[in-house]
Amino acid sequence: MSKVNIAVLIGSLRRDSFNARLAAAVAKLAPAEFTFKVLQIGDLPLYNQDDDANQAAPVKRLKSEITASQGLLFVTPEYNRSIPGVLKNAIDHASRPYGQSAFAGKPAGIIGVSVGAIGTAVAQQHLRNVLAYLDVPTLGQPEVFIQAKEGLFDADGSIGAGSRQFLQGWVDRYVAWVKKNIA
Ligand SMILES: Cc1cc2nc3c(=O)[nH]c(=O)nc-3n(C[C@H](O)[C@H](O)[C@H](O)COP(=O)(O)O)c2cc1C
Questions:
Q1: Does residue 1 carry a pLDDT above 70?
Q2: CB-count burial class (<10 Å; 0-12, 13-18, 19+) for 39
Q3: Cα 34 to Cα 99, 138, 180, distances in angstroms
Q4: 127-156 tens-digit pLDDT
Q5: Residue 119 CB coordination number (10 Å)
Q6: Each residue's pLDDT tens digit, 70-127
Q7: CA of 87 to the centre of ligand 1 (A)
Q8: Is 71 in the pocket of ligand 1 (CB under 6 A)?
Q9: pLDDT at 2
Q10: With a 6 A CB cut-off, is 17 part of the ligand 1 pocket?
Q11: Is 81 touching ligand 1 by the criterion CB < 6 Å?
């Protein structure tokens, strides 16, 4: 099969983000035909509908990267029981102007890590709502709710032994799901 390009959207701009580390570690579990590109969202302006007819260069870049992908991977922390504003801002940008969304039909996976005991469960439900409206089919099971704990990552940045089998299972399902749903 030819290459499958996955656009990765990370909901944290933090330098040592657990979610950025999770995204990198999960990418290592995928087959070689899958390539993962983390999309820059930190330089996007705040969304303003006035600018729809004249989108800024970072917005055009984001949209073209999503359009060029065959699938999406959202890796996000939970902020105040929802998705972080930076991620929502990026989604709003790439969904507009009305009728010219970059997202429609792209199969998506959702994972994330937070410090709370229920991981990113509530944020993920909010994100599923948003993506449903944008006509983005999301992998339902297994759900990935990870609490940030010692040992989550190995010294080389791979998934630690305690979570590796579970996350390998998730990646295997995700890869099959994306292949089945490529538009
Ligand atoms: C504004 C803000 C709100 C937060 N709200 C939640 C929350 O609702 N649930 C939770 O589990 N953790 C919450 N946290 C803690 C995050 O899980 C923690 O900061 C985590 O490290 C963020 O992910 P990152 O390491 O990828 O940046 C919050 C953190 C911030 C800064």
A1: no
A2: middle
A3: 29, 18, 14
A4: 999 999 999 999 999 999 999 999 999 999
A5: 21
A6: 999 999 999 999 999 999 999 999 999 999 999 999 999 999 999 999 999 999 999 9
A7: 13
A8: no
A9: 83
A10: yes
A11: yes
Classify 4 as helix, strand or coil. strand
Yes or no: say if 90 and 8 are a contact pair by the CB < 8 Å rule.
no
**pTM exceeds 0.90:** yes
Q: Can you tell me the distance from the alpha carbon of 47 to that of 76, in angstroms, rounded to the nearest whole number?
A: 19
**Which ligand 1 atom is nearest residue 119's CA?**
11
Which residues neighbour 23 within 8 Å (Cβ) at sequence distance 6 or greater?
8, 10, 36, 38, 73, 75
Pocket test for ligand 1, best of 114, 144, 146, 147 (most atoms within 8 A of CB): 114
Chain centroid to Cα 72, Å, comes to 6
Count of residues in the chain: 183
**Residue 20 identity (one-letter amino acid):** A
